Amino acid sequence: RVGIIGSGAISQIIHLPILRQLREQFEIAALCDISAETMSILGVEYGVPAHAQFTDYRALCASDLVDAVLICPLGTHVPYAIEALKHGKHVLVEKPLTSRIDEADAFVAASHEAREKHGAVTLMAYMKRHDPGYQYAQRLVRPLADKGEIRFVEAHHIHSRNERYMDYFPVIRPSDIPDSARAAARAEHEAVLAAALGPNPDDQVAKCFGGMMGSSIHDVYTLSGLLGRPKSIIASEVWDDGHCWRAMFEFPNGAKVNYAWIDIRDVRRFQQEFACYGPDIRVSLTLAMPFIAGDASTVRVQQMEPSPADPAPYGRHDGTAHAGDIRPGIVVPGGEGWPAAGTAHTEKFVTPGFDNQFKREWQHFHACITRGVEPLVGAQEARDDTAFIIEWARATRGV
């Protein structure tokens, strides 16, 4: 039984429809939002009665109506997550967790305590870790990275305005948001900038900080899954009035990452790509746009063709095929005229699956709660990602 804190666009476009798809595993049991208007509309759509619609998150967290809570309001998510954990609820926490290290540390402590005291599960909503394409690429890249065989990664995230995708969905735009809530959100943003960047930060850095926390976080945790935790920021800069930034990072075992996040604003063409280079292989991961149903991540593997001593046929045959044989449905490497070992360049293009990464995330959350599966991403990794992005922002200069 799930309660949802925050009924904005991500809940309306992604989480609520997916929970309805997974009705045999989850029940949408309660909603919490500062907009009663939004909850009233969603309550009718998803069968959540008025008594299960809360404007105070503390009341939802204390309620016996829910076993688990999705945390996705505007701003920091830590107070909501801690309150839910205090009451023994399982939590799925959307990114960004927070922009403050002290809050992130408190979240880690609350997660550990709730696990020990209540058996509560904490899962960070790093949905791209559940993507079939990402998981396929990780199985190829991570063992190479751990052996020091990934030398360089080219990573770029080309981003248009979210409205270019969200405008296709009937997102509720409520009229009952109080001015005091808007003022509190602005004050929180200013306090976050001061805590993270110090007094008088570079104007462009201040403008891009929210994008680093809210969007580049996907790239940070994707790279960490492929390569391990980042070691250092070699260089970083921001330009175009805070709309574009790039950096060079060092990861374990000598891997260097050239990274760019570029805002193309009004061109509806999302691109998120990671090309991982080893001495004899290149693995390129292109991640899907999660708001588009049926969009699938792809992996391209490029390397030189091996020449096995005992060639295996490609295709079905009756046992009579021999090296170099080519006939309908059969190609057997080797034999006269076949390229010598390491001279033929090959390229394999893989679409590992069409399952939605958010749906797989919820299925994993269910398995963690009901079968004791270890959460793929816990509180400590989210805390470390928060610390890294703050360090990165502080190392960034405006140009």
Descriptive report:
The chain is of the alpha/beta class. It has 2 domains: 2-126, Rossmann fold, CATH 3.40.50; 129-356 and 377-398, Dihydrodipicolinate Reductase, domain 2. The chain is 38% helix and 23% strand. It has 11 helices and 17 strands. A 9-stranded mixed beta sheet has the order 16-13-12-11-7-10-9-8-17, covered by helices on one side. Helix 5 runs antiparallel to helix 11, helix 6 (132-146) packs across helix 9 and helix 9 (203-227) packs across helix 11 (379-394). The longest helix has 25 residues, at 203-227. Residues 307-317 have low confidence and may be disordered.
Radius of gyration from the CA trace? 24 Å
Catalogue the unreliable spans. 307-317
Binned, the helix content reads 25-40%
Please state the average pLDDT score.
91
Secondary structural class? alpha/beta
Strand composition percent = 15-25%
**CATH class call of the largest domain:** Alpha Beta
How are the strands ordered across the major sheet?
16-13-12-11-7-10-9-8-17
Largest sheet: 9 strands, mixed
Give the CATH architecture of the largest domain.
Answer: 2-Layer Sandwich
Number of spatially distinct domains? 2
Strand runs, count: 17
Q: Encode the helix/strand succession as letters.
A: EHEHEHEHEHEHEHHHEEEEEEEEEHHE
Secondary-structure blueprint:
Layout lengths: L1 E4 L3 H13 L6 E5 L3 H11 L6 E2 L2 H6 L5 E4 L6 H9 L3 E5 L6 H18 L3 E4 L6 H15 L5 E9 L2 H4 L12 H19 L5 H25 L4 E8 L4 E7 L5 E10 L5 E7 L3 E6 L11 E7 L21 E2 L2 E2 L13 E6 L6 H15 L7 H16 L2 E2 L1
Parallel strand pairs: 1-2, 1-4, 2-3, 4-5, 5-6, 7-10, 8-17
Antiparallel strand pairs: 7-11, 8-9, 9-10, 11-12, 12-13, 13-16, 14-15
Helix pairs in contact: 4-5, 5-11, 6-9, 9-11
